[in-house]
Amino acid sequence: MPSPNNTDLASLAWRPGGVITRLERGRGRSKPVAVSLDGVVVCQLARTVVEQAGLEVGQCLSHEDLRLLIEQDSQYRARDKALRLLAVRDRACREMEQKLAAAGFSAAIVAGTVGWLVERGLLDDVRFASQFAAEKRRLGWSTRRIRNELLRKGVEREAIDQVLAGGVDTPDTFGGGATGVTELEVAVALARRRFGREFGSDAAAATRKVVGFLARRGFDWDDIQKAMRLLAEDARQDETPLDPDSLSN
User: Fold this and answer.
1) What are phi and psi of 59, to 5 degrees?
2) The pLDDT of residue 3 is above 60
3) Which among 81, 77, 58 is positioned nearest to 69, based on CA atoms?
4) With 90 as the cut, is the pLDDT of residue 168 above it?
5) 9-119 sits in which CATH class?
6) CA 137, CA 132: separation in Å to the nearest integer?
7) Cα angle vertex 110, ends 108, 1, to 5°?
8) Among 5, 109, 183, 215, which one is most buried in terms of CB atoms within 10 A?
9) What pLDDT is attached to residue 27?
10) Could you give the C-alpha distances from 180 to 39, 44, 174, 210, in angstroms and in order?
């Protein structure tokens, strides 16, 4: 995979350094600057890196100077890439690592960039997990499914446990402010809201729909069965015939 700064670092191993003979600036500040030593383009650097280093035509650069400039450029580009990703949405630390690695940055640059973001509070797995859990709860996801998805995204178990401890907070499901409710209560509320009326017309069909609906959202079979028994009781109270014993078959 090519380097993100379009420079083959291995090709610079033989170069002892040289004199800057040209700094070709692209149009716009986002375009890199092509740096030529002794008439040969050796690398492209972000304009900010060139300006901060005070590079000028006629300046001598050693091999070490060149290596440090390219390292600074990679660092700058990685941070810029990360900030652009965060401008779209929050990310887990592991997700950011994967994105930067896929963009071609070295392991050292990736680790340094993620550390830089964490130090400034721009990456926070607990915050990310909390926001992710709140969003998915509004969609009716179970705690188990939320946990599994956060693990898949690379969030540490400790952060997940911190967010999910003490029950499930589902304000949109219960009309605002409800905290500490159980998975069973969530399952029942979702099923009632989505399929409550269908039990009066076709209980068997409604049962099949609810089972699939809750299963897709990650609720375990025990909670699904309990939820269906509670809905069956609702149906009996409404004088809608439904045999709850058939649900366990």
Assistant:
1) -80, 140
2) no
3) 77
4) no
5) mainly alpha
6) 9
7) 90
8) 5
9) 77
10) 69, 55, 12, 23
Q: Is residue 232 a contact partner of residue 242, using CB atoms and an 8 Å limit?
A: yes
Q: Indicate whether this model's pTM tops 0.90.
A: no
Contacts of 161 (CB under 8 A, 6+ apart): none
Cβ burial, residue 114 (10 Å; 0-12/13-18/19+): buried
What is the distance between the alpha carbons of residues 67 and 63, in angstroms, rounded to a whole number? 6
In the chain, where the domains are located: 9-119, 125-164, 183-248
Which residue from 100, 95, 97, 99 is spatially nearest to 153, judged by alpha carbons?
95
According to DSSP, the β-strands at 17-25 and 60-62 are antiparallel
pLDDT in tens, 12-58: 556 678 898 999 987 766 788 999 998 888 888 988 899 989 999 99
120 or 231, which is more confident?
Answer: 120
DSSP-H helix ranges across the chain: 47-53, 63-88, 93-102, 107-119, 125-138, 143-152, 157-164, 183-195, 203-216, 221-237
CA distance 17 to 62: 4
Q: Would you state the structure tokens that stand for residue 131, as one six-digit string? A: 């926001």
- At 15, the amino acid letter reads R
In which band, very low, low, confident or very high, does the pLDDT at 181 lie, cut at 50, 70 and 90?
A: low
CA distances from 95 to 82, 98, 243 (A): 11, 5, 48
